[in-house]
Specification:
The protein has 157 residues and is of the alpha/beta class. It has one domain: SPOUT methyltransferase, trefoil knot domain (Alpha/beta knot, 3-Layer(aba) Sandwich). It contains five helices and six strands. A six-stranded parallel β-sheet has the order 3-2-1-5-4-6. Strand 2, helix 2 and strand 3 form a beta-alpha-beta unit.
Amino acid sequence: MSEPRMKIVLVTPEIPYNTGAIGRTCVALNLELILIKPYGFSLDEKAVRRAGTDYWKYVNLSEYDTWEGFLEARKPCRESLYFFEENRAQTLYDPAYEQDAYLVFGCESAGLSLTILDGMEDRTFSLPMLDTRVRSLNLANVATAVVYQAMRTQLGG
């Protein structure tokens, strides 16, 4: 198995438990976690560490002050960006994920801004929800489902 180069990007995360749980998934899969400020919590909060258990110290973490700062520093090619939002025509099953994919998720209350998503309709995907009574899914659950789907072929699936 080759070394995973995918990254999970959280733009303005609000809930420390979600960030901690996603960090734990990143450690398990040897992935980088990229956080874009502002956060709705402090990374020093006990809640982040509790959700990440004692793995948080092993998270390969990068932080950026803004989305624009992230783009300027990383210069990701358009084809490596995958955005995840609710109610999109394309699902997480549709793309052929690049090995160096950036899997991008927005904040829990509002998702990704229209500024970030502008012109990226073909790069935006959702998770299917079959029962209309469910308005949204937990961010940590979504990120975990997406990254395992994205890595499926690399893990031998």
